[in-house]
Write a structure and sequence with these properties.
The structure holds two protein chains of two kinds. Chain A is mainly β. Chain A contains three helices and 20 strands. Classes of the chains: A mainly beta, B alpha+beta.
């Protein structure tokens, strides 16, 4: 990786006389969060297993640096934060500074680009989950205030025209803060994209040395000025899967490699004349539990909550509906979004909202709220009842 | 008698064809002064919008455009700095620093005030509209061709346009934008105080566009600054390289 960056930086010195453009900007965040964990939780009784943060105060600086000329481009996004967290067991203070993304990119020729850095390799139109991405299925939903961190990768892109592009990437490792062991260390990614008059699609192949290949695809169709239809699809085999047979006599067991599973999302977004958009998505996750298996999962979790939580599939159920109503992204004075998610397998629901109001050209206030409806033995309401975040952000300079 | 009718019909057909060709060539020439038919164009736009008595926050964006593709990056207000809107054909995406992935957006999501996304990109009326000559009229003391334009395909920003092109300067100086049903939506006036050099020629180039809503008391002024003609690589319009 280091040698690749040096090789990419060589033209930088060769083009030292070129016309360099540099810029920086940043946003300073200050926010507080309160989370009401579930007292009767089966998966996390009295918060003893997950030890969820129940109160947090955070100060965070997110900054962007950019330097570029006609051939070379360097960009970085850094995050520096200090947070105080509290729960029933402890009050802690900690800070961290890291680059969530950075990239050195060189244009090798008219059609070819080479890049090295930490890049968020996420795509497709879906909001709820990203089935077509091998790296970001969750799409950042587990912690809406935390940004996705890029994958450390070397990438070659061929862009013969404005309609097509082909990417080959060597994934060196997952970026900062990745879970260990790193399943994507030393893996490969190939992606092809094509765009037409009113459609676009991409196909994805990813392979790591020890794991089964990931196949993905995403597509979108602009039906009219108001209506967009889209879909994402993925297929992979997981390394360790918690089996929860419907028959309660049988215990939990861990399967070292699951059969290949398909996960697919269909969605549509309709934009009204005032710019507001309503979107609805349906997700089928073949690797989730059936209703009977999920009931058995929660029954077994009464005895083994740690195992149930640690090895839970990424989604417990098989079928989900996600709806979003949001204001125009391009409005400068403010933005709001209301979300509803329902696990069709167990009937649990989550309501969420985000609102942001510009106070002046630099200052904005924002708030996000999540409220879960359901019981302790239903997925979306299994861990907490509600969460509220209130904060301000200041654009710099 | 029959021969006479045949000759007259032929002459009318030829005349009609010439009129269409003329309208098209006028349109092509006028497009150049608004970024069309060039290998690529980079410009900075300052947008100021007013809705009734309310003056909206000014915006500054840098646009790179070739034909029907464009990428617009916001510079101001500073809290939106780095936000980009990519348009390739009829597909549009919004991305900004920290976003988990680009968001597809609809042409209904207007940029700011009365400006459509199509208004900030290079104008390619000759490619997007069928043109018919409707005569000449005087606008602000200047003799103008009047062209009636009808959208050829769905990615055209407007369904119908009535376009006044200066006979002398061959630049569009006034436009009326209509819905499919023929309802007047917006009007626009153009100034050409910029000059670009292309193909060894100095071409007057749009410096200001004033768009007025025809239905409510609202208007948007776009000033075009730092205009450069340059070839823009396809990679600039690749969603995967927009970071």
């Amino acid at each position: 990786m280091k040698w690749a960056v040096v090789a990419l930086l060589m033209p930088l010195f060769a083009h030292a006389q070129s016309d360099w453009r540099t810029s920086w900007d940043g946003t300073l965040y200050g926010y507080a969060n309160n989370l009401a964990s579930r007292g009767d939780s089966v998966l996390n009784p009295n918060n003893r297993v997950a030890r969820l943060v129940q109160r947090a105060e955070v100060a965070e600086l997110r900054f962007n640096l950019k330097a570029e000329n006609e051939t070379l481009r360097f960009s970085a996004r850094g995050i520096s934060s200090a947070r105080a967290t509290h729960n029933n067991f402890a009050a802690q203070q900690h800070g961290e500074t890291y680059l969530s993304q950075w990239q050195v990119r060189a244009r090798a020729s008219e059609d070819w680009t080479v890049a090295a850095g930490r890049e968020v390799l996420n795509w497709g139109a879906a909001q709820f989950r990203s089935p077509s991405s091998p790296f970001y299925f969750d799409n950042g939903r587990s912690d809406p205030m935390r940004e996705l961190v890029g994958m450390d990768a070397l990438k070659v892109t061929w862009t013969p025209d404005r309609q097509r592009s082909v990417n080959f990437a060597r994934i060196v490792r997952s970026g900062y803060g990745a879970a260990q062991p790193d399943v994507w260390r030393d893996s490969w990614l190939a992606k092809f994209d094509q765009r037409g008059d009113e459609w676009a699609y991409g196909v994805v192949l990813a392979k790591s040395p020890q794991h089964a290949a990931f196949y993905g695809a995403h597509g979108q169709l602009t039906v009219s000025d108001a209506l967009l239809c889209y879909s994402e699809l993925g297929s992979s085999a997981r390394d360790s899967v918690l089996l929860s047979p419907a028959d309660l006599i049988q215990p939990f067991s861990l399967q070292t490699r699951s059969p290949r599973r398909i996960f697919a999302l269909l969605g549509a977004a309709y934009t009204f004349d005032n710019g507001h958009t309503f979107s609805a998505e349906y997700l089928h996750e073949e690797g989730g539990f059936s209703r009977a298996q999920e009931i058995a999962y929660f029954q077994r979790a009464r005895i083994l909550p740690g195992m149930a939580l640690a090895y839970a599939p990424r989604l417990l159920g098989r079928d989900y509906v996600h709806m979003v109503w949001q204001s125009n992204f391009l409005e400068s004075e403010g933005y709001w979004r209301a979300m509803f998610t329902r696990n069709l397998t167990d009937g649990s629901s989550e309501l969420g909202a985000y609102a942001e109001k510009s106070l002046n050209p630099h200052w904005s206030a924002f708030s996000t709220v999540l409220w879960n409806a359901g019981g302790a033995q239903q997925e979306l309401s299994a861990l907490f009842v509600h969460s509220l975040t209130v904060g301000i952000k200041v654009a710099l300079p | 008698m029959k021969k006479l009718f045949t000759i007259m019909a032929m002459l009318l057909t030829v005349a009609h064809a010439f009129a269409e060709v003329d309208a098209l060539s006028i349109l092509k020439n006028s497009d150049q002064a608004r970024g069309g038919g060039l290998p690529g164009i980079v410009w900075e736009i300052k947008l100021v919008s007013r809705d009734g008595d309310k003056l909206e926050e000014p915006q500054r964006i840098v646009v790179k455009a070739v034909d029907e593709s464009s990428v617009a990056e916001t510079q101001e207000p500073v809290r939106f700095k780095g936000s980009k809107i990519l348009q390739v054909e009829r597909n549009m995406w919004l991305t900004k620093p920290g976003l988990s992935k680009p968001i597809p957006i609809s042409p209904h999501q207007r940029m700011s005030g009365q400006a459509s996304n199509g208004d900030i990109a290079a104008t390619n009326y000759a490619g997007d509209y069928d043109a018919q000559m409707s005569g000449t009229e005087i606008v602000d003391g200047e003799n103008c061709f009047v062209l009636n334009l009808s959208a050829k395909h769905k990615r055209a920003t407007y369904d119908k346009i009535r376009y006044w092109v200066s006979v002398k300067r061959v630049v569009g100086i006034k436009a009326e934008f209509y819905s499919v049903s023929g309802k007047l939506l917006k009007t626009a006036r153009f100034n050409y105080d910029n000059v670009i050099e292309y193909d060894g020629k100095r071409i007057p180039f749009v410096s200001k566009m004033l768009i007025r809503d025809a239905l409510i008391d609202a208007e948007t002024t776009m000033e075009f600054l730092s205009v450069k003609v340059k070839k823009i690589s396809a990679a600039e319009f690749d969603l995967g390289q927009l970071q």
